[in-house]
Amino acid sequence: MTAKLVEGAPAPAFDLPRDGGGTVSLASLKGKKVVLYFYPKDDTPGCTTEAIDFTAMKAKFKAAGAEVIGVSPDTVASHEKFCKKHELDIILLADESKEMLEAYDVWKEKSMYGKTYMGVERTTVLIDGAGKIARIWPKVKVAGHAEEVLKAVQDLK
Question: What's the CATH code of the domain at 149?
């Protein structure tokens, strides 16, 4: 059973492979605001729209001192194909082991057409420069979400 994330608590540490090679860890982002958005699957309609929206606003997030990072259980190769196809310019982390997804409490039982299965519940977590969880958006609706997150980043001192 995973711990429930709460605002104000330290963000769970992570160190995962990313698109384009190398790894990204929470420790390597110390001092920056971090927008972690968890999404179910590369190149599906909602996930594509969300990634394109965050890419389009990357300069504004950067100006506000934030790094935007997408996380899904897809492979690095899948992320690279997804980025190339849609000209994405954000970091995508591959959590094939689902350890980070579980640590952030987004790996959930879902159901579709009467079948239950495990999958990622679309969630965004904003981490402040001190590594604490500043805000959590559970069960994200994609339309307008990147703008809402940017406003929260800009409001974060």
Answer: 3.40.30.10
Q: Tell me the pLDDT of the chain (157 aa) as tens digits.
A: 446 889 999 999 999 999 999 999 999 999 999 999 999 999 999 999 999 999 999 999 999 999 999 999 999 999 999 999 999 999 999 999 999 999 999 999 988 889 999 999 999 999 999 999 999 999 999 999 999 999 999 998 7
Please tell me which residue in 47, 83, 134, 152 is annotated as part of the active site: 47
How many domains are contained in the chain? 1
Active site annotation includes 83: no
Task: Tell me if 23 is assigned to some domain.
Answer: no
Q: What are the start-end ranges of the H helices in the chain?
A: 45-56, 58-63, 76-86, 99-103, 145-155
Would the pTM of this model clear 0.85, i.e. be above it? yes
